[in-house]
């Protein structure tokens, strides 16, 4: 997906644009045959108790000798029972932001000693908590020539459990079903499954990639909620410490809104986000008093602390299980635990639900971060009942980058500008997060690079910075050498208000994945150029507008009534969403047209 940093900060975006990784480990290696078998096992009462997986992978070298590797994740809840076929190894999975993660990796490395050589690797595992296993993405690290995904379902479970295709193109899979003894066998067969090149501006693969879902563990979102809620610890022996701290931080508050804001700020400012994913700790929130005592916690811990503090302040605080925009599934469509990957809190007042994300440190009270906007959550409403609610979305106009510059030509022919850049709401939060993660000595450079987006190609010294809760205002000066060119009797001036517009484009080379704009944002720019004394305008570029499902943009150039200034007004609105592969070239063409208009120079000449 395109991040705010990719789009808005060109100097930093270079680093992010390099994150385009071809998922294929080695194009010389293919999977000749993949057979992935899942056996659902029930107890005498007809309850699903585990899933046994056996994955056999036959690799082949195409042009030269090579090495291949079969992989499987395991943890406290997934046990590796057998691994054969080559060199077997085990390692921990290192994930950023995770203090301790019990996920580990089993691999089987095989050697293919000459072109055409084949080798088979087998990894068998047992999934001990099938409640948390519901999705199989249909891709590997190598292209697959032939694949079979086989599900064995006991007949006493076959009425309840279903295997459902999602994001699967017509004709990609052949499905067959047959009854063998006391089990139903469902087989999905496929040929020519490609591993597409990975792009940093695509959606998460769980949102668009072909997958098979195992449905039936839960009949509806309420059953998912009731199960997840069993992990909640109802009582906190040290809850008085939470009540005392709540009383302290809300002492000067006179309304519930003020109390909610004070609690949100306290958690954001004092509780460091550290994830601990280890067995049941991956689902069970830490006690609120422990989160408060340690001053750190994961999303579940911060949410439980916020809920406890809200309740201590006399406000109806609740927990919310939610899936971020990376998940792709919604509880109401697919009632599975994998529809969620996050926990937040909520304050319920009357018919209103105010969502509070304790991990979004730079998000002001009463706002939610981009990553959960429009996502669906399960809001506590008692032991056996929940509210299925959608987090509100913000308008692109709420998340604005607004610049206003006055431009002149100095005696040596350099274009100089002075003015302001205002960054609001979610965009400001992104900048604040970046600044927080940047060494103090480098922060001035970040602000200067930000101010340079007001005029493409310009250089800015450190601007004056004024940061409020929901906005950042930069005031300063910048300059652009080489922007003024004399051609015969005329002078052309490069006044480009869009330093980052082309960052909205998508790389389409060898691409098989859709594009993605992940958040709503807008840019409004006014550049006012002072025509030098003794000169007049002789050429003004034509206005241009673009409009598609994801972008609205326009550029206009006008002469003031007194003929002394030329004003360039530019705006772009970005609407979040997945852009289908077939539409990427059309979106790129619109961006190119608007970008070309932005880079069109104005013309001036001697008035006499």
Would you kindly provide a written description of the structure presented here, covering whatever features stand out?
This protein is globular. The chain is an alpha+beta fold. Helix content is 18%, strand content 40%. Residues 1-24 and 97-101 have low confidence and may be disordered. The strands form nine sheets. Strands 23, 24, 25, 26, 27, 31, 33, 34 and 35 form a nine-stranded mixed sheet that branches. It has a seven-stranded mixed sheet with strand order 4-8-2-1-10-13-12, with no helix packed on it. Strands 20-19-18-21-22 form a five-stranded antiparallel sheet.
Topology readout:
Blueprint: H1 4-8, H2 10-17, E1 29-42, E2 48-61, E3 66-74, E4 78-84, E5 87-92, E6 98-101, E7 104-112, E8 118-127, E9 135-137, E10 143-154, E11 162-166, E12 174-180, E13 183-193, H3 205-208, E14 211-215, H4 221-229, H5 239-249, H6 256-270, E15 272-273, E16 275-277, H7 288-294, E17 296-297, H8 299-312, E18 316-322, E19 342-349, E20 352-356, E21 376-380, E22 386-390, E23 400-409, E24 415-424, H9 425-436, H10 440-451, E25 459-460, E26 464-467, E27 471-480, E28 484-487, E29 490-493, E30 515-517, E31 521-530, E32 535-539, E33 544-547, E34 551-559, E35 565-574, E36 577-579, H11 584-598, E37 602-606
Parallel strand pairs: 1-10, 6-16, 15-17, 23-31
Antiparallel strand pairs: 1-2, 2-8, 3-7, 4-8, 5-7, 9-14, 10-13, 11-14, 12-13, 18-19, 18-21, 19-20, 21-22, 23-24, 24-27, 25-27, 26-27, 28-29, 29-37, 30-36, 31-35, 32-37, 33-34, 34-35
Helix pairs in contact: 5-8, 6-8, 7-8
């Amino acid at each position: 997906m395109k991040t705010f940093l990719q789009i808005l900060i060109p100097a930093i975006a270079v680093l992010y644009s390099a994150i385009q990784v071809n998922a294929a480990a080695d194009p010389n290696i293919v999977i000749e045959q993949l057979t992935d078998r899942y056996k659902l096992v029930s107890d005498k009462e007809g309850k699903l108790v585990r899933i046994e997986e056996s994955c056999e992978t036959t690799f082949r070298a195409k042009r030269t000798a090579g090495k291949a590797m079969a992989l499987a994740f395991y943890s406290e809840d997934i046990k590796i029972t057998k691994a054969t076929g080559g060199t077997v190894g085990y390692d921990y999975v290192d994930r950023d932001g995770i203090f301790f993660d019990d996920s580990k990796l089993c691999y089987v490395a095989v050697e293919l000693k000459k072109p055409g050589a084949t080798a088979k690797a087998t990894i068998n595992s047992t999934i001990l908590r099938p409640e948390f296993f519901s999705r199989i993405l249909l891709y590997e690290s190598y292209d697959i020539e032939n694949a079979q995904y086989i599900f064995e379902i006991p007949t006493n479970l076959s009425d309840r459990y279903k295997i459902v295709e999602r994001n699967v193109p017509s004709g990609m899979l052949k499905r067959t079903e047959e009854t063998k003894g006391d089990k139903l066998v469902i087989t999905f067969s496929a040929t020519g499954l490609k591993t597409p090149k990975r792009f940093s501006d695509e959606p998460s693969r769980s949102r668009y990639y072909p997958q098979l879902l195992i449905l039936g563990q839960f009949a509806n979102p309420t059953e998912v909620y009731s199960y997840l809620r069993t992990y909640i610890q109802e009582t906190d022996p040290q809850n008085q410490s939470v009540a005392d701290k709540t009383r302290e931080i809300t002492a000067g508050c006179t309304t519930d809104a003020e109390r909610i804001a004070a609690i949100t700020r306290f958690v954001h400012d004092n509780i460091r986000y550290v994830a601990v994913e280890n067995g049941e700790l991956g689902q069970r929130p830490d006690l609120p008093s422990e989160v408060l005592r340690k001053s750190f916690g994961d999303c579940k811990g911060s949410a439980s602390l916020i809920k406890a503090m809200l309740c201590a302040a006399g406000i109806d605080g609740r927990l919310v299980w939610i899936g971020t925009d990376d998940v792709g599934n919604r509880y109401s469509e697919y009632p599975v635990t994998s529809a969620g990957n996050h926990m937040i809190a909520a304050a319920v007042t009357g018919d209103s639900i105010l969502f509070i994300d304790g991990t979004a440190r730079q998000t002001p009270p009463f706002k939610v971060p981009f990553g959960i906007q429009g996502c669906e959550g399960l809001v506590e409403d008692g032991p056996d009942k929940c509210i299925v609610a959608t987090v509100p979305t913000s308008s692109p106009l709420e998340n604005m980058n607004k610049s206003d510059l006055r431009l002149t030509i100095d005696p040596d022919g350099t274009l100089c500008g002075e003015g302001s850049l205002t960054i609001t709401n979610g965009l400001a939060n992104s900048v604040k997060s970046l600044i927080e993660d940047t060494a103090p000595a480098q922060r001035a450079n970040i602000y200067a690079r930000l101010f340079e987006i007001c005029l493409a190609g310009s250089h800015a010294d450190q601007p004056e910075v004024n940061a409020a809760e929901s906005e950042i205002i930069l005031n300063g000066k910048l300059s652009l050498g080489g922007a003024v060119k004399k051609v015969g009797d005329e002078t052309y001036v490069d006044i480009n208000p869009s330093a980052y517009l082309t960052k909205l484009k998508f790389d389409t080379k060898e691409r098989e994945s859709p594009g993605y704009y992940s958040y709503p944002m807008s840019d409004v720019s006014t550049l006012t150029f002072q025509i030098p004394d003794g000169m007049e305008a002789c050429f003004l570029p034509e206005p241009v507008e673009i409009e598609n499902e994801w972008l609205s943009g326009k550029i206009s150039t006008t002469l003031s009534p007194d003929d002394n200034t030329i004003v360039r007004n530019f705006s772009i609105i970005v609407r979040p969403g997945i852009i289908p592969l077939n539409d990427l070239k059309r979106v790129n063409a619109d961006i190119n047209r608007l970008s070309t208009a932005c880079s069109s120079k104005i013309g001036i000449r001697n008035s006499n």
